[in-house]
Amino acid sequence: MMNDRFRISNLLLERLAELGLSLPALLRLAGLPATFFQQEKIYATTTELFSIWRAIEEVSGDPGIGLKLGNEARMERYHPIAVAAVCSRTFHDALQRVSRYKQLTCPETIQFTTSGEETTVEFIYFEADDNEPKTLIDMALAWILTTGRRGTNGQIIPLRLELKRPAERREQLEAHFGCRVRFKAGRNALVFLTSDLDRPFVTHNEELLTAIGAQLENEWQARHNTIDIAGHVKGTLKRSLAGRRPTLQDVAREIGMSPRTLQRRLGEAEITFQQLVEDTRRELARHYLEHSSVELNETAFLLGYEDANSFFRAFHRWEDTTPGEWRTRHRALAGRA
Question: Most exposed: 61, 150, 176, 224, by fewest CB within 10 Å?
């Protein structure tokens, strides 16, 4: 089971600020607390991430901002995963590395499927309940192409770009990607010649790749250990919360582990049982409010609160607003998407 948590880099916030976007305005429009970007490590659920990217387009007033954000030319601004991709031996090697290491930061991967002379590359969001924001898709696919072009000195040219959305901005998209666009497709993807994936990268740097790769591999293993135990606990909590608040002893018994062992495993993962209870309640609260017509009092019961007031106080602490206001705002945003 995978945690629904995306790590948001401060590099993205710096780029947004440089492009003139107001971060407070962005958070307001996304329906997130004003202190959201002030966390030491910024994590967002898939729903929160999608809200942020929809807000990025609206606050910027620039439908092409995703292309700009996906076309970073300065290596010093690259995330270590992006550096590892550029230092890879081939385009295929780069895609494999990114697909593996993206699991360090988010419930997302890059899927590439080969059928004869064509290979399709698309981003998969494991926890998505609705369509990916257009700006996020533009950024992600533009970044993949930027990596291929940088590594091969511009030798990579896609066969076509496939997008689920209706036809819009065709000229801009075709100029940026250098290929034709197929709208109203069944997926959001770039399609390349399969032979292009074997093109060697002129930016290949084995020493740098080894140094970065070792650190990423360590993080990857540690992340999977954390996900394993946290996922088991949260899955158990989601099944057990209604009408009561399960204890660590209850959860340990449910997953076939002694309370002491569970406590030790959580300590190794640097997470507490209370954090997992809070994370689980918050995820479920957002789900109930956004995707069902469950009354607020019933929501409090389903989350294991003794009374509605306790739920309201907790929700205000999480989201800096009331459950009713949050539900109204997010349903309005979903209606505009």
Answer: 61
pLDDT attached to residue 195: 95
Q: Are residues 138 and 227 in the same domain?
A: no
108 shares its domain with 180: yes
13 plus 46 within the same structural domain: yes
With a pLDDT cut of 70, the percent of the chain lying above it is 91
Give the predicted TM-score (pTM) of the model. Answer: 0.67
Q: Is residue 277 part of a domain?
A: yes
Mean of pLDDT over the chain = 86
Backbone φ and ψ for 167, nearest 5 degrees, come out as -60, 125
Do residue 163 and residue 277 come from a single domain? no
Do residue 250 and residue 181 come from a single domain?
no
Main-chain dihedrals φ then ψ at residue 5, nearest 5 degrees: -140, 120
CATH, residue 119: 3.90.1520
Domain annotation covers residue 212: no
Half-sphere CA count of 304, side-chain side, radius 13 A: 15
pLDDT-derived band of residue 271, with 50, 70 and 90 as boundaries?
Answer: confident
Q: Indicate if 224 and 119 belong to the same structural domain.
A: no
- 216 in Cβ contact with 101 (< 8 Å): yes
In our burial notation (b when 16+ CB lie closer than 10 A, e otherwise), range 261-284 reads: ebeebbeebebebeebbebbbbbb
Number of domains making up the chain: 2
How many other C-beta atoms lie within 10 A of the C-beta of residue 158?
22
Q: What is the C-alpha to C-alpha distance for residues 274 and 293, in angstroms, rounded to an integer? A: 28
pLDDT, tens only, 112-138:
888 889 999 998 887 777 889 999 999
Mean pLDDT calculated for residue range 265-276: 83
- pLDDT tens column, 71-84: 876 666 667 778 88
Question: pLDDT at position 1, please?
Answer: 38
Print the domain residue range for 297: 217-336
CB of 165 closer than 8 Å to CB of 134: yes
- Is the model more confident about 269 or about 237? 237
User: Residue 299 sits in a domain of what CATH number?
Assistant: 1.10.10.60
